[in-house]
Amino acid sequence: MIVWINGTFGAGKSSTARELVDLIPHSTLYDPEVTGGALSRLLPAKRLAEVDDYQDLPIWRRLVVDTAAALLAEVGGVLVVPMTLLRQEYRDEIFGGLAARRIEVRHVLLAPEETILRQRIDNRSAYGDPETDARVRAWCHDHLAPYRSALDWLTADAYTVDTSSLTVAEAARTVADAVLGGRAAPCGIVQTPEPTGETLAAGVLLFDEQDRFLLVDPTYKPGWEFPGGVVERGEPPARAGMREVAEEIGLELDTVPRLLLVDWERPQPPGHGGLRLLFDGGTLRTDDAARLRLPGAELRGWRFVTEEEAADLLPPVRYRRLRWALRARERGTVLNLEAGVPVG
């Protein structure tokens, strides 16, 4: 299990986490700041200069998941992780990656009043150098606005502790009681285990009356996607697509969808590749579209888009697959692709 201590800079995450490891049995501290610091020595300066925050580096988010999983495999018990996450898509990617490894996450938000936060930031002098401390304080103040903007989803997602009038020891005890007492419940992200070999996946294109197609926004990985998922053992691929559509958006398809293309995806570590099938689920009437729902915790949203709009939402490999699927639909044929390129 992981107890993720969130909050903006000055909320007391690190000090609370250090106290917490003494209150939760068999717990270990992991600070992802260490991973960020390592990247400053691993990545070329040119790449580092392209981002303002190492959280914007996909490798940091991937390494946080891998490191946390490796630590738990090594020491077991509970991992206490103090780390600010203000971007929901990053939270979804990291927590989703942990869920894929069947690692339970308890998300806790330390949320003192803003006046208290500002006082703490103004009194901060951790570096012993006036100029450095001034820059750090200014940086912390600059992050209060993004924190305020994120509070809607943070407070809805995390167990919130108002630490305005609590000492560090009291805050840690409050968090420990909430975790051990079950009030800080596991996050609801749903994710399947990471594949250990090639997979067969089925996606379904659903169109509206303006001939736009439906994309969904998964909580557990970056980028939008077609409705669909991995075909289970012994399951017909088209039926798998129908099952995924029903599970993800609450829509029961009346007929088996028509195959548009088969694409062989090249293995690219950490992915194993495999076969990707796209089916034509037909046109949804306006009343059908009105019945779309997100019944599970896997998806954040859905929308109908044009081919041009999809270019900004889909990862390149899925966008290439989409374009050929649309061409196959226009021609009334089925295409065979290898790594996104038609063959045969």
What would you say this structure looks like, in words?
The model has no long low-confidence stretch (mean pLDDT 88). The longest helix has 18 residues, at 58-75. The radius of gyration is 23 Å and the shape is elongated. α1 (13-20) packs across α9, α2 crosses α4 and α4 (58-75) runs parallel beside α5. The chain has helices at 13-20, 32-42, 45-48, 58-75, 88-100, 114-122, 130-142, 144-157, 168-180, 237-249, 286-290, 307-310, 316-331, and strands at 2-6, 27-29, 78-82, 105-110, 159-161, 199-207, 213-218, 228-230, 258-265, 274-283, 299-305, 335-338, 341-342. Helices cover 41% and strands 21% of the residues. β9 and β10 form a beta hairpin. The strands form 3 sheets. It has a 6-stranded mixed β-sheet with strand order 8-6-10-9-12-13, with helices on both faces. The protein contains 13 helices and 13 strands. It is of the alpha/beta class and 344 residues long.
Q: Number of helical runs?
A: 13
Residue-averaged pLDDT, rounded? 88
What structural class is derived from the secondary structure elements? Answer: alpha/beta
End-to-end span in angstroms? 49 Å
Approximately what portion of the residues adopt beta-strand conformation? 15-25%
- Uncertain spans: none
Number of strands: 13
- Give me the strand/helix succession: EHEHHHEHEHHHEHEEEHEEHEHHEE
Helix content: 40-55%
Integer-rounded radius of gyration? 23 Å
- Main beta sheet: 6 strands, mixed
Shape: elongated
Q: What spatial order of strands do you see in the largest sheet?
A: 8-6-10-9-12-13
